[in-house]
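dumping these here so i dont lose them again. two proteins, back to back, each one seq then structure tokens. dont judge the mess
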Amino acid sequence: MTNRSFKAFLAAMGPGILVAATGVGAGDLATGALVGTKIGVAVLWAVLLGAAMKYVVNEGLARWQLATGETLLEGAVSRLGRPIRFLFVPYLLFWSYFVALALMSACGISAFAIWDALRPAEMAETLQPMDGKIVFGIMHSIVAVVVVRIGGFRLFEKVMNVCIAVMFVTVVTTAIAVRPDWSAVAAGLVFPIIPDLADTGLSWTIALIGGVGGTVTVLCYGYWIREEGRDSTDDIPACRLDLATAYGMTALFGIAMVILGSQIEVEGKGATLLVQIADQLEQALGGLAKWAFLIGGWGAIFSSLLGVWQSVPYLFVDLWTMPADRAEQQNRAPVNAASRGYKSFLYGLAVVPMSGLFVSFDQAQKAYAIVGAAFVPMLAVVLLLLNGRADWVGERFQNSRRTTIVLWAILLFFVVALGFVIHKSFFAA
């Protein structure tokens, strides 16, 4: 592939690559590794299922927007009732705070691990892990703001392309290097088996399916395709192609992490677990494997942070500036990254969650995980309602029977999974 054709490929796949880079973070990678350690590669099919679910949801979002000219948020508020707006704003604020806090913490931990391995022995006491998490977490937040504000969408897109290339090459190559049992990997991808079903196998499988591909950030795809100039139904095939690429890459990352976890023993959570995996890889494969994985893990986490910083302010401004009259809404200009509301939310997102870097927030994290998981079934309901009406979206673009069945299956799965998580978290002895 020539340099020109490679650039053309990146341009065509741009929004999809952003989806993949934003959707894969420390939590997703850590969940994959822990599943591999706990129950092995027999549940690799769950990664494929999770990625397929998110593809169906995001394709429906893009189809609605390109068929109607409205973002999914605009459509939900104008067609289903204005209370949706007032319910989603506090949800978005809660989600934004804890996601931003988790991403800053994860960036701080992974960056400190790289710094700790590089600094001379005489500087070993200059920065402790807790301080390193705070310092590097704040630095990453500031850098993300600079990239978004000064470089604009094009610089953001280029940085994300670099990050996802780094994470793709390093994580997948490391998974191949540990030499798993490829026949077991193939069986795990094809046969839907859950080991230890009566014990913890079901809960880990649910976590793996639900954790693939992000939650609220799914909505951001609509704003990214606007940035790329996609605004008509002629662009639906392009969206389907780049979303298939995005979730194919997401599934590949998840599969690689499950393979790694199945080959080395890991415990813990979040970015701390990624550091532990790197240390284990050093013992098994040498220092090069450790460095490759540390850099790849950092690329995954920072790309998620950067993607959230750039895209989530769109959601807030879209909701906040939505006019009461639907006719006015149809005539208003698209959400602009140069607007005061966008910049204000970006700065708040980058600064306010820093307060959580200094305290423990385990219970809040548990609450955030449950609220985040609840988003996908809500989105499935909205897509069933909006894209199910031929008079709204057009007969050609309304949900097919197959898509409707899949959306109902997604809704059922997440309702059951959410009930299971709530029971295990708050009511189990």
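---- next one ----
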Amino acid sequence: MLSHVAEIAELLGQLEGRGASGKVPILRRENRIRSIHSSLAIENNTLTLEQVTAVIAGKRVLGPPQEVHEVKNAFAAYEAMESWSPSSSRDLLAAHRLLMAGLIDDAGKFRTRAVGIAQEKQVVHLAPPAERVPGLMKDLLGWLKRADAHPLIAGSVFHYELEFIHPFSDGNGRIGRLWQTLILSRWNPLFAWLPVESVIRDRQADYYKVLAKCDKAGNSTAFIEFLLAAILTALREAGNAPSGEQVGAPVSEQVAKILKACSGEPKSKAQLLKIAGLSNAYLNYKRHIQPLVADGLLEMTIPDKPNSRLQKYRLTEKGRALLH
């Protein structure tokens, strides 16, 4: 564990040294979508990454209505994450309410009945009785608030203990992964955008095996090691990404092309997307141009008529500073 923690800290330092602050809207959004897609895929959501992206962009998607609803809920929860305190029971319940609203009747409430986890018709985990849940969660959140363990360790322990307690009738896996991301993001903001969930999805079978192993052993050691290894893999992938695609890198290749194109004469939406090598589709506009306007890097030439066919975009001083 200590070896993993040391290597994670070293990789974080390297990414931060290269300007990985997680402030670029395009990269931030893309990695958040990957996190949401992966976390839901672990729970058997069948929508593809492209479909999840379209749902978040407000597009109509042909897919199971419940799975589309899950995506909308998850996006709302991840977007609200910054406002929550990791040790707050009220915030934990609020997060679960966002994640599960319209999916279960008791969203945002601790379960009131016995639950178990079954695999292939065999019960592999019987959660503590429902009447003990409020007390157990109070103890766990209190421990998190007082814990002097490294956040990487504390976050992993909390994740395991929450899955063991299984405080909700449904949605325990996704709230556990979301809450660990919240805990880690309070230690280093880069974790708010690092798609660790993608690595867990790729190792889904091991994820469940190690949970069962820890239940049998009566401690969370193996689960902590598993999660630290997943975080390491996510950081290595971020560090080894092609130039301009690192998590939180200052400017992605496509963003740089768009900003440079606007440094001279203003350009239309179609011109910018063509320069970036993208089709003139509304989704590409929403993903690659709108966030730059929202972040103050580009500005409209006709701001009072955003949908004008004569609309063009030019670089702001903030955008010019980012390029240099």
